[in-house]
UniProtKB/TrEMBL annotation:
Pfam families on file: DUF2911 (PF11138)
Organism for this UniProt entry: Maribacter algarum
Domain of life: Bacteria
Record's protein name: DUF2911 domain-containing protein
Length: 284
């Protein structure tokens, strides 16, 4: 009898355990992790949904500090110093709050990252504060959404919900650090790795900046690659060709291609250079 009762209790226990479900969060957690230039940016937030409610001006009151999320405060972190919305911000983690208004929003970074909502919010702990203009979004956002749109080495952060979005610029130290490195270590030929010169020249090419220095870096790279493989030199020739082409110096670009063909041994690579020569010749 005791054995039978034990089996029944055991079976009922299994049934109860297997019948349990985890209730889904009404505001599930979201996270964005993005490398922006030389900087890692992370945003952690809880994502409330509209659920047939009018959001701004009702669910989220005008002119009051808002957690810009649900539950715990929304957090944003940077592993290097940045400029956010025109304000300098040191590397670290911060809470992000906003004050919505039909005409303008205030965006705030606060050093307190343990707040639940905006309760016990302390203005004394604010790190940065700036104003942005809200825009009508191009679609309806049922759920609060953060997004990071990459601009070369920088970014724009978007916050969207219902029919509204705001955005603000994130500027990293990437370009400044790159230029300092080029001036201090590359143009002075202190760097021993030839690839670093060619890579820096390519960076300047994509930034549409300092083309004269980019070409000088290519020349140094070729000096460094005198005894190296054809691929390394081929990469330098390609960067030089692209710079001259961007500057509309097509005859110079053709000269680089001819040099590349002379130094190339691979038939497939020679075909690559011939195609580029034909393409650029059409521009002359």
């Amino acid at each position: 009898m005791k054995y039978t009762i034990g089996i029944i209790i055991f079976v009922l226990g299994l049934f109860t355990a297997s019948g349990q479900v985890d209730y889904p969060s009404l505001s599930p957690k979201g996270m964005i992790s993005q490398i922006v230039g030389n900087t890692k940016v992370e945003i952690e937030y809880e994502r409330p949904s509209a659920r047939n409610r009018s959001v701004f001006g009702e669910l989220v009151p005008w002119d009051k500090v808002w957690r810009t999320g649900a539950g715990n405060c929304t957090r944003i972190s940077f592993d290097k110093d940045v400029i956010l919305g025109g304000q300098p911000v040191k590397a670290g983690q911060y809470s992000i709050f906003t004050i919505p208004n039909p005409q303008e929003w205030v965006v705030i970074l606060n050093s307190d990252t343990e707040l639940y909502g905006s309760f016990n919010y302390s203005p004394e702990k604010e790190v940065a504060r700036f104003i942005v203009t809200p825009q009508k979004s191009d679609r309806y956002y049922e759920t609060l959404s953060f997004d990071i749109d990459l601009i070369p080495n920088n970014a724009r952060i978007y916050i969207s919900w219902e029919n509204t979005n705001i955005s603000f610029e994130l500027v990293t130290t990437t370009d400044k650090d790159l230029m300092n490195y080029i001036d201090e270590f590359l143009l002075t030929k202190k760097e021993k790795d030839g690839n670093r010169y060619a890579n820096a020249a390519e960076q300047l090419y994509f930034l549409n900046s300092r083309f004269g220095d980019a070409l000088a870096l290519c020349e140094i790279a070729l000096e460094k690659h005198k005894k190296s493989d054809d691929y390394s030199k081929g990469f330098v020739y390609r960067v030089k060709m692209e710079i001259y082409e961007k500057l509309h110096l097509y005859h110079k670009a053709i000269e680089i291609i001819d040099d590349a063909i002379v130094n190339e041994k691979s038939e497939s690579e020679i075909k690559y250079w011939i195609k580029n020569k034909e393409r650029i010749n059409k521009k002359i």
